[in-house]
Every structure is written in C-alpha cells, then in structure tokens.
Amino acid sequence: MRQNFTEEEWTKLLQAPMEAVMAVCLADKVDPISFLQELIAGVTIVTEDLKRTDLPGELMPALVSAMAEKDAQESLTGEQLILKKQFELLGIIQAFKKPKDARNRAIESFQTISIILDQKVTGAQATEFKTWLMSIAQRVAEFQRESGFMGIGGSRISDREADVLKALAAALGLSL
Q: Residue 115 sits in which domain range?
C-alpha cells in the first residue's frame, strides 16, 4: 500500500491524526489547563489507536503500522513517548501567530489529504481513513464538557468545536 504514495503524500497522511487533534484543541478559547488536558487526551487517543488490530482494509493497517514503527524507533515508551508527542505538537502549535491559522492549516491539509486519497486508493479505503480521522477529532472534542458551571450543564462539544468538526468533515468530503 505504501508504494501507491510519494514520500510527501505518505508523510501528510501520517501527520493527519495530530492535525485533527490540533484543530479541535484550538477551536475554543479556554484556560491553559483545559487546553493542555484536551491536548493530552488527543495525543493519547492517537497513541492508543496505534494499538488497534481491528482497522479495516489495507490502507488503515499500513498507516497505523508505519506510525507504530516510527514510535518503536524512539528510545522512549509509554507515558514518556506520549509526553514527547505532546511537546512536539505544542511546538507545531506555537509556530502559528493565531489559533485560527493552525485550524485553517489543518483544514487545508485535510483538503489535500482528500484529494490524495481520492486519486490513490479505492473509495472504500479513502472513506475508511477519512472516517477514522473524524473519529479522532470527534473523540477529542468530546473529551471534556464545555461551558457549564462546576461540571453541571454544558455540552459535550462546544459550538466552536462543532464548527471545526464540520469544516474538517467538509474538507474530507464527508458530512456530519
């Protein structure tokens, strides 16, 4: 499956899950602790998904295997590896002047990924990967209650997160 893609295309696919995390984490203006909690949750969600053995088709297992191989090359494991990934993502985020710039980059990246997938793999394989990316974004968005007071009220997903999820889905050619 890897041979169907250029090095640049493959790298873009490998980066996509963390871009989903970044876009959702930057959807709302929240306090630093809530932001970091959501970021930690997102990195953990992606890391845990790399352990899944129930992914369909050829593309998904190939990508997850490539991500897991990259992680295996690290001298760190477990919580230390997750922490390293968090710092890497924070490093990417801090390079942007505004959260909107990072969100827009993720949306543009998803548009590019959609084009790559539609040209290089079957419709089913493209849909499987796109749906997986959206499941990551959705789970990050659902991680903590938004608004409310002392855990009472609020919603699972804020309006801004819902807008980001819709924009990501639209970029991938999916509907929510």
A: 2-172
